[in-house]
Amino acid sequence: MNNNEIKMKKKRKFKVPTSFTILFFVLVTIMIVSWILHYSGIKVENEKIKAIGIIDLFVSIFQGFNDKVEIIVFVMSIGAFIFIVMKSKSLDALTQKIAWKFKDKTIWAIPIIVVFLSFCGSAYGMAEEALGFHMIVIPLMLVAGFDVFTATITVLLGGGIGPMLATFDPFLIFTASAAANSSQAGISEPTDGLAFRIIAWFLVTGFTSAYIMFYARRVKRNPSLSYTFSTLEEDKKFFLKEQINEVPLTKKRISICVIFLLMFLLMIAYLFPWDTLIGKNIFENAGIWVQENMPFFTSLVPGFGHGDMYVVAGFFLIGSLIVSILNWEGEETFVEDLLTGSKDMIGVAFIISIAGAITYLLSETGIKSLMLSSINGSNSNAMNPFAFIVITFLLFIPLSFALPSTSGFSTAIFPVWGPLANSVTIGSTSITMVSGSITAFAFANGMANMVSPASGIVVGAAQIGRTSYGTIMKGTWKFHLSLLGINIALLLIGTGLNYTGSHIF
Prior knowledge:
Elements: H1 3-12, H2 19-39, E1 43-44, E2 47-48, H3 54-67, H4 69-87, H5 90-101, H6 109-124, H7 134-143, H8 148-164, H9 170-183, H10 194-221, H11 232-240, H12 251-271, H13 274-278, H14 282-293, H15 309-326, H16 331-343, H17 346-365, H18 367-377, H19 385-402, H20 406-422, H21 434-451, H22 456-464, H23 469-497
Antiparallel strand pairs: 1-2
Helix pairs in contact: 2-17, 3-17, 4-15, 4-16, 4-17, 5-6, 5-12, 6-8, 6-10, 7-8, 7-11, 8-10, 8-21, 8-22, 9-20, 9-21, 10-23, 12-15, 17-20, 19-21, 19-23, 20-21, 21-23
């Protein structure tokens, strides 16, 4: 093969476009559709569909930012907090301590690591952040007689199922719920279906731990069954030539881990509608009492269950300050860390802005009204809820490959899908399929991100573990196929549980 042929081969190689490009392509598509509908004379509520221009595409991005600023501020404050916590190495120390504690029974460190990573992903969407744990787990598994692949899938699958089993993930649950409400107010609460999502988290996390432990036991008994057997000796030389530096779990780091957990419990406490659950205004009145009697503490922040994302963002900022004080390196360093952590979320913020622009343009052109009137005019409320939830899940899988960002997907899709799901009711009850659709989206997006060749967690795992994407897929395809069946079964069971008259799913 000559040089020209090699160059031609390289040119033909397809590269998956970024979320920014895909979303902007959607904006362009909306513009073209607006022209077609406008000049075809299509009307909605006696007004012609408005045609938009090229300049409108770029202006709409900042309008989208303005419309989604609450979510963006929320995301950036969490980004700053997580960066400052990760910089302290407190989570690294905790994970390492747990892992080495089970050095003689290392196989039992697998479920602990999986549960920890899954919890972090479920609570706040940790995915790519888990990549750093590969370098802790790989030496541990090799020393214990396992292989690199065991360590790789422990972190990859443990960190991958977390966002899929989202319970309070602000990048998925809250953005999807807010997006659904943007078209039809009050049709979704982030806590709808929470009990079901928690049960699903326990079941799937348990299954994942068992799957990895089964593989690990097989490999230890017969190393030739390892998917990375051919490089086993090279892996030992590479990863064990220098034992991993121990990160001591000091009292300071324990305190930071406690604060880390408390911050997310505080987020749940402020966003969960406690008064609605118990049918009384206990927490609202408690908040008013604090405002009146302790104004030096707060005279603006409401009680538990009545806060919004601005309030929670403020708490995360306070959390960042407390962690920085415990790990004090100076005022300039604190500000730099705060800005760096926020900067890491600029990409997410921009994706949310472009996705918000999609909603804005659909609304301004009248296309969204046309779509909603079509949904209302259809007989979708007669659609079988079981068929609807499976179709939603299977449809969202390929869409998640094209649009992997959970916040971008939520903001772009759920302003339309929310009202559609709201029109599908469970039997004679008034329970709709909105929260079920959000759970189906979480399942679909999580599965897509664990197998996509463009996924950061998959590519990163392959690079750090010195293996290939093909090897990872060869070793996990049975897991993903089983997971597909489990997710469909859970969605059908959840839909069935709503027929009891309680909004479980």
